[in-house]
């Protein structure tokens, strides 16, 4: 009987939850035949390599996202730092606002001369800057903002690296556990062999 071994092998190697037994049932292949072919072609090693490539790609994608996020954070903190610098330069400047309202009333009602016919309000606003003593509360708030910025810019990269390493180790351990948990004992002509899946 001819089987599509390329298809079976590809499914085993690329599918995380596949096993020899499931594939043998799915493609109606005797389990012993499938196991023997898998051993000869080293499917288990190919599956491990495929999984390692997936893990590597996943880690690279996560790292890339973290780098992009860090770049965005640093760009934002740079912009915020520029604003803080400007605010520091303006700590001794206060804005004074002067508003003037002028009301014009028109009386053109001949029947009732005491009743206004038109009322207009003109409002002018003048803002001026004056130098005064330094705003202490503003200075304290700016110092707090600078401290927060410093903390953001000096992200704990060592802790990030340790966390990343721990994730990678966990993924590798999961692969090893899965490989240990998926083994089959098959009997061939009186010999007992253990096949890893």
Describe this structure in words.
The protein has 197 residues and is of the alpha+beta class. It is 60% helix and 20% strand. It contains 6 helices and 4 strands, in the order H-H-H-H-E-E-H-H-E-E. It has helices at 5-14, 20-27, 31-40, 43-89, 136-153, 157-181, and strands spanning 93-106, 118-131, 183-188, 191-196. The protein has a two-stranded antiparallel sheet. A two-stranded antiparallel sheet has the order 3-4. The chain starts with a helix and ends with a strand.
- Overall outline: elongated
* Helix content bin: 55-70%
The major beta sheet can be summarized as: 2 strands, antiparallel
- Which parts are unreliable, with pLDDT below 50 for 5 consecutive residues or more? 183-197
Task: Give the radius of gyration.
Answer: 38 Å
Number of helices: 6
Strand order of the largest sheet: 1-2
**Overall number of strands:** 4
Mean pLDDT over the full residue set: 81
Query: What portion of residues belong to β-strands?
Result: 15-25%
Going by helix content, strand content and strand pairing, the class is alpha+beta
N-to-C order of helices and strands: HHHHEEHHEE
Distance between the termini: 23 Å
Describe how the helices and strands are arranged.
Elements: H1 5-14, H2 20-27, H3 31-40, H4 43-89, E1 93-106, E2 118-131, H5 136-153, H6 157-181, E3 183-188, E4 191-196
Antiparallel strand pairs: 1-2, 3-4
Helix pairs in contact: 1-4, 2-3, 4-5, 4-6
What keyword list fits this structure?
alpha+beta, two-stranded antiparallel ribbon, elongated, disordered C terminus
């Amino acid at each position: 009987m001819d089987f599509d071994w390329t298809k079976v092998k590809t499914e085993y190697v690329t599918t995380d939850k596949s096993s020899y037994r499931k594939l043998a049932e799915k493609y109606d292949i005797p389990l012993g035949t499938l196991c023997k072919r898998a051993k000869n072609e080293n499917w288990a090693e190919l599956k491990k390599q495929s999984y390692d490539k997936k893990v590597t790609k996943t880690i690279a994608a996560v790292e890339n996202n973290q780098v992009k996020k860090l770049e965005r954070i640093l760009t934002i903190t740079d912009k915020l730092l520029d604003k803080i610098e400007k605010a520091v330069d303006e700590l001794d400047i206060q804005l004074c606002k002067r508003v003037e309202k002028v009301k014009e009333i028109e009386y053109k009602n001949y029947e009732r001369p005491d009743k206004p016919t038109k009322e207009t309000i003109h409002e002018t606003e003048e803002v001026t800057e004056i130098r005064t003593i330094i705003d202490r509360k503003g200075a304290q708030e700016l110092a707090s903002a600078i401290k927060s910025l410093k903390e953001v810019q000096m992200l704990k990269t060592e802790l990030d690296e340790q966390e990343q390493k721990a994730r990678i180790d966990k993924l590798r351990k999961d692969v090893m556990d899965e490989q240990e948990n998926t083994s089959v004992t098959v009997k061939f002509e009186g010999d007992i062999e253990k096949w890893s899946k």
